[in-house]
What we know:
The protein has helices spanning 2-13, 23-43, 52-68, 73-138, 146-149, 152-175, 179-225, 232-254, 264-270, 277-293, 297-306, 313-320, 331-342, 351-363, 367-375, 383-395, 400-413, 417-426, 430-439, 444-453, 457-464, 476-484, 490-502, 505-513, 520-532, 536-547, 563-566. By secondary structure, it is mostly helical. The chain starts with a helix and ends with a helix.
Amino acid sequence: MNKEQNDTEDSEMNPVIDIDLCESDRTFFRSLYKFIEEEKKYLQCPEEGANELRYIIYRSAFNKVIGRASAYRRLLLDIKFEYDGTIREMLRREDDDATSRLQSLLRWAAHIRDRTSILQNQTAELQEEVRRQKSAQSRLVPGLTLAQSEDPEVLEDHLEHLETQRDVLLDRKCQCCPAEVQTHLTFDLQEAELHRNRLRDQNQQLITWFRRLKLVGERLRSWEETGQAVPLEDLLGSTIQNLLEIRTKSLQDEGSDEDSCIPAELLEEEEPTGQDESRLLKDHLDRFLELLRSSQLEAAALHAARSPVLRNSDTMEMFRGVQGPPGSAPPPLLFFRALLVTVATGHRMSAGLSLQGVGVALRHGEVQLVAHGVTLNKLTFTEELGDALTEHAQNHPAVADLCLALASTVYQACGQHQKTALSMCRRGLVHAAVEVIKHQKLTAEDSLWILSRSPSLSLLQLLTSSQGGQAAILSVGGTCAFMLVDSSQQQVALELLDGLLRRGPGVLQDAILEDSSSSVDVWEQVASLCSDLKRDDLRRAIRSVLLGQDGTGARSPDLEGARLMEHVFL
């Protein structure tokens, strides 16, 4: 069919009229072609592909040709018969193919329906199973399996366990109070602490007065018993001197711990309680253990923090061995919080306890709690405490800036100026770090130690450049030779030399000649190291400056700078 269609289309595109035809035949064929084109346009036949309308049009045209021909009519009728038979066969095949496809689709649809029915049945069974499982779970006792829920002995044991838990919860509930009451109690506690501080100050003043009066009374009594051997003026002069010494000692006692500022003999004279230290320790410890056994961890932490005999590192270790309930704050962290709340203004925790508490707070992410203790001066600042903050900053970049700021405060308070400058450099405060180095007059070795642990181009430039007429803290040549050996610092040293070289050949020459602390051998070492690092441009520039000098002059602005070129090539 396609071949016949292609032949027909070719004949449509290139109509050929036999030259032997007469004029009437030519007219007939022209009108026939015109009829075919008009019919195709009228019936909107597609230009390509098989189409029944196209066959009908050409069948009609072929009938007209048969009707006009007389001599070859029989032959043309045979051709038309074969042509129609071929078309009918092709249509029959197309119908058979369509029927086959339809039957295949019907079979597939039936298969889909059967499969859908099976899936629906399975879904219904699964839903029924889910309902049965939910129904079975509703009959389960929390904490027991289905088999255990049907065992009377297991149920009795579980009931006893639940009753025990209920009694514990009821006891704990009796010791709790509403939030409003807790707020009032907190306010009352703060008022009591303020009143305690005022009484402590008054007590300290009364102690001083007591010491003075006691000393004056003893001196006058002794003076009367000795028969007034010395003049009264001399006696009063020596007594006043002793009173000044007592005042100095009292001022020193104000910075000590609360339990050491009051002498024992004064307590015996003023407040005779009849309760010795061992009994006091036993009472505090018994109350503390009672709170721990009842799982009142917050109350135990607050009690230990307020007790002078329990406010120590051993109590912190005891809290480390206690396991708190799920979802609650760790017991050591509760103790550290209580310590920060109860420490009076002007007093600090011991060094060991401060380090333990900060370590606990950092492990549990309570950096703000540490910041509170550092800001209010409630911790004893030590180098170990600053090191703990610095290590936490290196391992936790999210809070690195805050931890380094706290470490700087701690280092500065305990006189570790070298580590103070290093913490500032790690925070990006390079200029402030250089000011600390200059103000504290750190040595060149200290500056190299800081630079090696926090290498940066800006810090290297500030340390190797002279400012305000003052000589540079570090020499360019010696520092570059020191840093080029270390792979972690090579890039910074190369950036410094590249910057000098980019600014012009004269800048590098001035830097070499003004470097009074570095000899030619040092710069030769720098050039050799640059060559090892595949930086021949820097090697050639440095050696060009060295070879271009005659060894008779000095370019350094200071007097010490004249040492550099005096021994060059002599």
